[in-house]
Amino acid sequence: MVNARRVHPDCINASNPYHECVEFCFKKIAEVKARLEEENAGLVEAVGGGGHPNAKVLEQARDSLDDKRIEEVSSEEEEEEEDNQEPEIDVTQLTGRKKKLFELRLKMNEARKSNQTDVGSEKKKMEAPTETKGISKQKWLEERKKKIGKLLDANGLDLTKAYMLDTQEAAESKYKKWEKEPTPAGWDVFNQKTLYNAYKKRTKNIKVDLEEYNRMRAADPEFYREASSLQYGKAPKTSQDKIDKMAKELFDREQKRQEFSRRRKFREEKDIDSINDRNEHFNKKIERAFGKYTLEIKNNLERGTALPD
How far is Cα of residue 156 from the mean position of the Cα atoms in its chain? Predict the structure, then answer.
């Protein structure tokens, strides 16, 4: 059975489960009650002159008294903080033990600050990320729906007519996105349609000399050879400028492949656990697969307390 605590309901420490009121608490409560009664009496005299004052006027006067009381309390707290602040010390005048004590206090303050920052960073590592990519996108969509809803209400439109709020530039960009075919993914990268589109893209900038083409076709009766032809597999003589064109196209393609880079987010606060870009990419894939299982082990190793409890 829990013992009943000796706590007055008007005590400022009544919410503390370990507090028990003593004589000092009862004295303070009595002083506060007496002061409130005096203020209420003065308030009634000032407002109504002895009659029954208006309720609104009484409420306004009480609010003003509460504001004054808050200002007095805040000014008292500021004075206490000013009194508690240590006076500025001239380091050049300190000698011997006082100087050493002052340096130790500075080191203690620096250690306290660094401990607080380390605790905060370790807590961030231990906790899961607040928002994943899907959640943040969903949040963005919800905020966008709220903004569009406010605009629709302001213009007196229905949700089905939200397209009427789009500008000409926004509508054109939407149409371009709809017309653009999606990028192939997975095994679709190697199907015949994708390979044919890549071939058309590569040959788009190649200029065809129709006169030379017609001349070569007229000179060779088996220009379009079949498998039964005796000249099957025999290639016509290619000029040097065409070989140079092919080499230039291959070189440009290689340069474009090297310059291609997809923009990725860079987080400065993240720990560096890789030796180069390729190793960083590999570590990211490993982290996606096994990060949630190895998080506690990793943190224990970083702290140096990997031993079991």
Answer: 35
Distance CA 72, CA 77 (A): 9
**Separation between Cα atoms, residue 93 and residue 106, nearest integer Å:** 17
Identify the CA nearest to 132 among candidates 2, 288, 296, 302.
288
pLDDT tens track for 62-105 = 666 566 665 665 565 566 555 545 555 666 677 778 888 888 88
CA distance 27 to 22: 9
Helix/strand/coil for 167:
coil
Tokens of 148: 């569009």
The two tokens of residue 273 are 């656990």
- Look up residue 92 and give its two tokens: 């050049």
Question: Helical H runs in the chain?
Answer: 23-48, 55-84, 97-126, 133-155, 168-179, 192-202, 210-219, 240-259, 277-303
